[in-house]
Amino acid sequence: MATNGDVPPLWDESRQLGQLFMMGFDGTSVTDQVRTLIEKYHVGSILLKAQNLKCATPYNLMLYACFVEIVSAEQATQLVLELQTLARRSGHPVPLLIALDQENGGVNSLYDEVYIRQFPSAMGIAASGSKKLAKEIARATAQELNSCGINWILGPVLDVLTNARNQPLGVRSLGDDPHEVSAYGVECIRGYQEGGVATCGKHFPSYGNLEFFGVPDDVPTITESLENMSQSALVPFRNAIAQGLDSMMVGGVAMTSSLLNVMHACLSEQIVRDLLRHEMRFEGVVVSECLEMEALSRNIGISGGTVMAFQAGCDLILTCRSMSVQEDAINGLKAGLDNGMIERHRVQESVQRILNMKAKYTSWEKAFSPPGIENLARLQPLHTSLSTTAYNKSITVVRDQKHFLPLSRVVKAEEELLLLTPLVKPLPASAIFHQMQHDVSSVPLLGRSPSVDANTSVMSGEQVFRELGRSLARHRNGKMSHTSYTANGVRPLHENLLNRAQGVIVVTADAGRNMYQNAFAKHISMLCKLAVGPDGRPKQKPCVVVAVSSPFDFAADPSIGTYVCTYDFTETALRALVQVLYGELNPTGVLPGSSSQKLQTSQNWQQWLVESFSEDRDSAALDVLIAQCQNDSSAQAVLLKNIHSGTFLLRDPDVEEAHFVVRNSSTKELFGFCTTYYSKSSGVGHVGAIIVDPARRQLSIGHSLHDRAIRALLQKKGAAKFQLGVRFPHVFLGIPKLGTIEYKKLRQWFAKLGWNTSLSSSVATMMIRDLSIWSVPEGLGQKLANPDVKFDLVYGNEYNDVMMEHLKRCARNDVRGIYQTAMSNKEGCGIIRAKKTTDQSILGSILVCRSESQIAKYIPSVYKQPGVACISSPVISTMYGDRKSLFQGLVLLGIKQFKKQGLRSVLLDYIREDATADGLKALGFTTANSFDEVSSEPMHWTMMPGT
């Protein structure tokens, strides 16, 4: 038995090959099929899945791998125990990986009305605005699975809905903002792992922007270039890898762009080996999409597809349910090994990765003694409360133009309320679904009508929202009518009920893909607007449209005046909805991602008089305004520490400054202040800061200042880019990530002003807080030593020409001014250079400064702070191969220089939070503050209304 994750030396080849497969089977107990897979073929991973998610089309198969229906926690625990026992008796040295889809919302495989809690969908959790809640829900979900012996969850979903309206993932995704998806995805990973299960990110490289060109059996296609995807779709996957994601599922989608032509991503070396393994440095287990996809099996064949997937770099090959297909896959891998297409060392590598993951999350002791029902019973009260809290926080009122909510205020108790709902299939993890299965199974097979399944489907469709109608009736204590609608549109029945009712609720479920729902809801909304009262005068009827799945049904359609989103239609979600409709619950959910910025609602805002900042007139008043903001309770107040009016006045000859104020000309008070900087050498215009009196926020002062700032930057000839955030003065590098709710509100505020926050870059400041206990990390100094490179520390203007040539050669005009300032100010400033030993050419440089230096005046956290120093503005030649090590070497010398001088701490004032940050953490740095740096082309602003 392997105790440390190493490949057991006595394993024969067939046992090793079995570890390279994850397979499913039909049935709720051990069958001959799974017995053969485990005993004969030594398959090391089993996938359990709800049986209703059938492998009928590639669409279903891609989005929901398929199979075993698990009807209760107790049955699931027993099944897993039987599978592990079978593996042990068959001579498996290590336990099985037991995998499951449990995404919550509408995609749950394990259902138990008593012991398994229902939590919101991924997008519903994002709508709650709480990453802490996301982690708690992930941990709770994992604890429930772990209690049943399941050790691997196929999640989280990390796809970014870059084309949200037309994508089948819907609310299974966290949203359309890559950084928000990334942040919530990381919290889910942490929660799952704390709950005791391995994680699996999906669906790499993305299912968030698929094009469907052919017939339904054809595979969907990604048409985006990898370059574009790296700025959006790949961001959550990259950050998940950095946070220790255990495994990654690579999708079966096609990819086509100018430099890419891939038939199936999981079969492509370019995607798996080059992009995922080498470029993104993923070292965990790579899982293929299910190879039973119709298009894949038809075009390539299972055995050939298996070999191609393994050659591409996949470690685990997934096949869904058919025994003949599974044997074909196993035989294909054997043939590939026998004929030399697959190298044996590759098998060893993949088996090792799988064993490492098994060693981390399972053992025979764990496999044979899962926490079980007793633990689920103990967790039930806590998880029930968590579920209720999560749903209560997720319900979102997108619009309520006529203030129809709560309904109790506009529909009297004696008046009739009408509920109109579509026919939809019950969610697999719902009481209605399991009741329906019971009803069907109770009909004797010999006497069953051929149409019984269709009739049952219609009945179940009506039943899905039956309890919603009953709940609405109970809460209002009045008359309630409820009927369904179909693709036949508004029928006489609907018109009659509508004429009788004094208020209407229309439910939609993915109206973007079921256009009859869209048309029906808009028709009913129009009829309500045209309604007349008993006296013959126009009297609009309250109409509330509720989207119970995708929030994009009417998010951007202001003709739907009152619009509510629940993100799924589980029983818990609909209970929370009723409370919101009747005013018993205050809805706090917010549309996730950048959706809010796209709402085409008419936002009226007050235009304030904005004047140019005058240093003589406004400096004192600006200091008062800054002091008020420093004493504010907001999270951003910490960034204004040590700030004064002079901080924002850069006085750099290469930079054109234009600052603006909103002020009270009578009292001389400043209500708001905004800075802009335009670099003549780089052609970049910056909105550097917007500061508003805390007592006067939400009065459009910030909006007016921002509008004036953009108009000022548009007047700059040669402007190539506008940027939100500026490096010097070093106050706001972008949108500050301080406080989850404040950060989200700030992102949405800037998004509404026109900035595309979904394409932001994450930047940060980093610190070593105590140099007295810092030492060079063991082995790092030797690792960074390079005989071909030597370093020096220089001061003064005599180095100006050679340094300007270095900056020009590296295309870094953006730091030209700060380098000139450093060289003209020997007191407390210097430049550390890395030069080629042979020809003395400069390979890289950084600035170093102490608190008394000229540069430090524009870095408030350093200026006049005894014992604090700063490292700034690294410039590394693009011609040098190992740029990361050269950068680390420069920074290391800077740290050593400051430690030698007896300084207390050192700040690195700007760094992009990518792979470079890992090298800095190895040096002892920790993140001090993070920001979203947002850029836009000037052309974008010329097309914005009002600019």
Summarize the structure in words.
The protein has 947 residues and is of the alpha/beta class. The protein has four domains: 19-374, Glycoside hydrolase, family 3, N-terminal domain (TIM Barrel); 395-424 and 464-598, Rossmann fold (3-Layer(aba) Sandwich); 611-758 and 938-942, 3-Layer(aba) Sandwich (Aminopeptidase), CATH 3.40.630; 775-923, Gcn5-related N-acetyltransferase (GNAT) (Aminopeptidase). Helix content is 37%, strand content 18%. The protein contains 32 helices and 32 strands. The strands form six sheets. Strands 20, 21, 22, 23, 24, 25, 26, 27, 28, 29, 30, 31 and 32 form a 13-stranded mixed beta sheet that branches. The chain has a six-stranded mixed beta sheet with strand order 14-19-18-17-15-16, sandwiched between helices. A hairpin with a 6-residue loop joins strand 21 and strand 22. The longest helix is centred in the middle third of the chain and has 23 residues, at 372-394. The chain is globular, with a radius of gyration of 31 Å.
